[in-house]
Design goal:
Blueprint lengths: L16 H21 L7 E4 L6 E3 H17 L4 E4 L11 E9 L1 H5 L6 E8 L2 E9 L5 E5 L4 E3 L2 E2 L12 E4 L5 H14 L5 E3 L4 H10 L4 E5 L3 H13 L3 E3 L8 E5 L4 H12 L2
Parallel strand pairs: 3-4, 10-11, 10-12
Antiparallel strand pairs: 1-2, 4-5, 5-6, 6-7, 7-8, 8-9, 12-14, 13-14
Helix pairs in contact: 1-2, 4-7, 5-6
């Protein structure tokens, strides 16, 4: 991407190409969050996907169309992989990974945990990302090797002394058989931790690990658009992060370094791998 292809065409001296991609992701996620915000309390289902409970709303589709148009305007020739629409091939070497609404069930029920997630990859590696919290209006961003930010201010993970003093986030599959396994994981984790929360947005869970609102997060069988941006943000904020591509059980996990090994051990003891 040409460094002048965002923010009205002006250059930001000293910024790396990946940092400019972070800026683009933040700009476009903000635009999409505004679109979604206009439909809060008025979500309308369009169809379902993997199960009758895995819903897609008309706003999911509208948000992704807006995101794609905004990205291609700022970064012509980009490839785009999104949750709801067909992949777009590119020629620029930049690929965007898009979740137009992470927390669609929350959005459907007018619950206040809804986000937009946009990550940029080059050479097959996630190098920049942004997650917009639709209701709170916060924007989490990161560039590989250059730290993570909330609304432009650097963030860091919490430093819990042990798992027993840690608040953990998780999420559940739409598949009933997988949920049975996930219940077994909770049986081991609940007695070992301060408590567990399931708030319905994988992207925000990772960002909240990054800024210390959660001490750790784990979830199985998420997709790349769920964790691409959030995983980078958590890692750049100092969390230890393991993503599904590096294990055999489809596990995404991010946690403060002080508790990562203990959390991972409990989860994997039941999940396998």
């Amino acid at each position: 991407m040409n460094s002048a292809e965002s923010s009205g065409g002006f250059e930001l001296p000293g910024w790396s190409p990946a940092r400019h991609l972070e800026l683009v992701a933040a700009e476009v996620a903000t635009v999409a969050a505004d679109v979604i915000r206009g439909s809060l309390g008025a979500a309308a289902p369009a169809r379902t996907k993997t199960s009758p409970t895995d819903v897609v709303t008309h706003t999911d589709l509208r948000s992704e169309k807006v995101i794609r148009a905004e990205l291609l305007q700022r970064c012509p020739g980009s490839a785009i992989v999104g949750e709801e629409l067909d992949d777009v091939a590119g020629v620029s070497g930049v690929e965007w990974i898009v979740d137009p609404i992470d927390g669609t069930v929350n959005f459907l029920y007018d619950l206040p945990v809804v986000s937009v997630s946009i990550a940029a990859t080059t050479g097959g590696k996630v190098v920049a990302g942004a997650v917009a919290d639709v209701v709170r209006g916060e924007i989490f961003t990161a560039t590989l090797g250059e730290g993570a930010r909330r609304d432009g201010t650097p963030i860091t993970t919490a430093k819990p002394s042990d798992l027993a003093q840690s608040l953990i986030g998780t999420g559940f599959s739409y598949d009933s058989e997988l949920r049975s396994l996930q219940v077994e994981i909770l049986r081991g984790l609940l007695p070992a931790s301060r408590d567990v929360r399931c708030m319905g947005s994988a992207a925000l869970h990772m960002c909240w690990v990054g800024c210390g609102r959660l001490d750790g997060y784990y979830e199985q069988h998420t997709q790349i658009y769920d964790y691409a941006a959030g995983g980078l943000i958590a890692a750049e904020a100092g969390a230890t992060v393991e993503l599904p591509g590096s294990n055999r059980i489809g596990l995404a996990i991010g946690a403060a370094p002080t508790i990562f090994d203990d959390l991972r051990s409990i989860v994997r003891a039941t999940a396998g791998g």
